[in-house]
Amino acid sequence: MMLVPTHHFRDIERKPEYLQPEKCVPPPYPGPVGTMWFIRDGCGIACAVVTWFLVLYAEFVVLFVMLIPSRDYVYSVINGIVFNLLAFLALASHGRAMLTDPGAVPKGNATKEFIESLQLKPGQVVYKCPKCCSIKPDRAHHCSVCKRCIRKMDHHCPWVNNCVGENNQKYFVLFTMYIALISLHALIMVGFHFLHCFEEDWTSLLQGSGVTRAASAEARVPPQDKKQPRKVRATECSSFSPPTTVILLILLCFEGLLFLIFTSVMFGTQVHSICTDETGIERLKRKHQPREHRRSWKAVKEAFGGDFSLNWLNPFSGPCHPEPLNDRDWVRQVASMSDTDNTETTERKDSDSVEVTDE
């Protein structure tokens, strides 16, 4: 009896009900081009709102506590323009990272009819995700929050309420960079404010309360002044009283230091992933999924949108990817990568996967 070679379907889970491709529901009619992408996840939405709130809080403290009351007009204008520009770019990058399709694979295309229409050669392997019932291209992974397979998925970030993938990694990198820059800028301005205004503010407050700077430890308030209520007034360095100013600045320092460290680490991690052409998930599976990496400069240019220019820093300019393939083309492209002997098929097989023959 002669065995006829057939193509194979490889699932990512050991669940019998997912092993037959004909059980997949046909894909829905595609939405209009440019449809907004938004993940309805409560935790992600809350984190995104908190992100905007923290940036706007920093805006409030920088403008109304430090810059507007300052008597140095040039200092206020220059720092105000720089900080507001960086804050705008940070929020714009956050919005693009949150509302951009990270590279979702079409759902429901792993039907028996569709697979048969591809006319695959015997021995070719097709990867199928049983959760979204889609044929997975190379380097795609399923996100349990987005409930979709994402091309070149690095991780799911609740702060942008989205996956970081092929289409929005640039925006996420810019978001982390601009947040780190405004955090550093805010910390520097707070330092200058304490150096130049802290002593003056508290001296004015003590003098207004009847205590002089020369003898603050020995001076006694006249009896007639004790009967009058002491007023805590705003000073020339701030629109708020010194105690309120100190509290606002301490909170800003804590926020700036925390997010400077966090976003700097994330920025470095993402740049390293782009330069090495290896996502976070692939780094964890490095021992099990060896593959050929692209050159660093080519990967960077593809992620940021062509040759080096100011558009690399522009959140309104997208990444540079080849024209997207339709379902048939990229499925054939993925299948052709495994059109070799059984040795290559074994090397690409995951430890928790199962191989099924479509009789």
TrEMBL record:
Question: Does the keyword Transmembrane feature in the UniProt annotation?
Answer: yes
Task: Provide the E.C. number(s) assigned to this enzyme.
Answer: 2.3.1.225
Region span, Disordered: 334-359
Per the record's keyword annotation, is Acyltransferase included, yes or no?
A: yes
Topology in the lipid bilayer: Multi-pass membrane protein
| Reaction it catalyzes | L-cysteinyl-[protein] + hexadecanoyl-CoA = S-hexadecanoyl-L-cysteinyl-[protein] + CoA
A Gene Ontology cellular-component term: membrane
Superkingdom classification of source: Eukaryota
The similarity annotation says: Belongs to the DHHC palmitoyltransferase family.
Domain notes, please? The DHHC domain is required for palmitoyltransferase activity.
This chain belongs to the protein called Palmitoyltransferase
